[in-house]
Design brief:
CATH topology of the largest domain: TIM Barrel
Order of helices and strands: EEEHHHHEHEHEHEHEHEHEHEHEEEH
CATH architecture of the largest domain: Alpha-Beta Barrel
Oligomer: single chain
Radius of gyration: 20 Å
Largest sheet: 9 strands, mixed
CATH superfamily of the largest domain: Enolase-like C-terminal domain
CATH class of the largest domain: Alpha Beta
Bound molecules: calcium ion
Shape: globular
Helix content: 25-40%
Number of domains: 2
Number of helices: 13
Strand content: 15-25%
Number of strands: 14
Structural class: alpha/beta
């Protein structure tokens, strides 16, 4: 069986209600998907994270390397793509194109071998993964703290046992918002905060110290991803665990985070960091440093499914009779590209998501709906 065709789709949806975080406003979601098809008509789906038009160009660059290859040899294809782009793209969005293709090859491999990706990775260590709600973005409001508290309560009532909120507006507003959300959630729901690298080290220490009483499970991207030394210092100066890594690429990028003792929780995005092939290697590397892995996930059900299969395969650290339960990010902002386009739809049950059991990623794309969302 040989790869015959690589097809990309840019899909887009204008949001009913725009929202923002510490860096910019969102009023549209745009995503690049890729479909890899064999000469026998089997296909796999992949997705890249980042600017869709550039990912599409990256896929055009890599596609000729795939045509005519055996899709089962996905690590060989990965290496070929990596070596052909290494001189220009050791980091960044070109690797999202590589990731999208790698994910599609794993989906295809699973369909050819009639096994879910998690089994191909070495085994399913759990059938369900505890999901945390990503939401609580900023919006134009007279009383933002109150509105965020109401949104947080909605997630709690939907069964989430963990919720992540944005900080990075300014320290005073952040403290007020965190206080309001923690008060409405009560003590039993995990609460995380994410600054999207809005702060300096000094500001991050100030915020961390101020919100420590609210039992924060992690402080995500407190400072610029380039500031490895400052990450290490911040970790020593707060009791709140530090998370980061959605801007890191490949095992080599994560090596910087690990060697410098920057994070307690690493957050690679399978749609950017090098696909499923590389994510598995990053998981192994994280384990050697005693660092937890909670995937960053901001896309369709393709991205979510890939992350679920990987976390199903994750060996928790440390191992023990009653093991700690790993987490997965479940974006709850408005996104029909995630909710409607991919079948089956992922839904929360008792705060957890099922790891798909059917071959490959265990999802498919509704081709009728796809044409509705393909950007013209
Ligand atoms: Ca984040």
């Amino acid at each position: 069986m040989r790869i015959k065709e690589v097809t990309h789709y840019i899909i887009s949806h204008k949001l009913d209600e725009s929202f923002y975080f510490s860096q910019w406003h969102y009023d549209r979601r745009t995503i690049c998907l890729v479909k890899v098809t064999t000469d026998e008509g089997l296909y796999g789906w992949g997705e890249g994270y980042g600017p869709a038009g550039i990912i599409k160009a990256g896929i055009d660059f890599f596609a000729p390397l795939l045509i005519g290859k055996d899709p089962l040899q996905q690590e060989n294809i990965w290496r070929l793509m990596h070596l052909r782009s290494l001189d220009f793209a050791r980091r960044g969005v070109m690797l999202s194109a590589l990731s999208a293709l790698d994910i599609a090859l794993w989906d295809l491999k699973g369909k050819i071998l009639k096994q879910p990706v998690s089994v191909l990775l070495g085994g399913r260590k759990r059938e369900k993964v505890k999901a945390y709600a990503t939401g609580l973005y900023f919006r134009e409001s007279e009383n933002l703290a109150q509105e965020l508290a109401e949104e947080a309560l909605f997630y709690k009532n939907a069964g989430f046992e963990a919720v992540k909120m944005k900080v990075g507006l300014n320290i005073r507003a952040d403290i007020e918002n965190v206080k309001a959300v923690r008060e409405i959630l009560g003590p039993d729901i995990e609460l995380m905060v994410d600054a999207n690298h809005a702060y300096s080290l000094r500001e991050a220490i100030q915020l961390a110290n101020a919100i420590e009483p609210y039992n924060i499970s992690w402080f995500e991207e407190p400072i610029s991803p380039e500031e490895y030394d400052n990450y290490r210092e911040l970790r020593l100066r707060t009791k709140i665990p530090i998370a980061g890594g959605e801007c890191e690429y490949l095992r080599f990028g994560f090596q910087n985070l690990f060697i410098n003792r920057c994070v307690d929780i690493a957050q690679p995005d399978v749609c950017a960091t090098g696909g499923i092939t590389e994510f598995k290697k990053i998981m192994s590397s994280a384990q050697t440093f005693g660092v937890d892995v909670v995937p960053h996930s901001w896309g369709t059900g393709i991205a979510l499914s890939a992350a679920l299969h990987l976390i199903s395969n994750w060996d928790t650290i440390p191992g023990r009779l009653y093991e700690p339960e790993p987490l997965i990010e479940f974006d709850r902002t408005e996104n029909p590209l995630r909710d409607d386009l991919i079948k089956p739809r992922f839904s929360l049950e008792n705060g957890r998501l099922d790891v798909p059991t059917t071959p490959g990623l265990g999802i498919d794309v509704d081709m009728n709906l796809l044409s509705k969302y393909v950007s013209k």
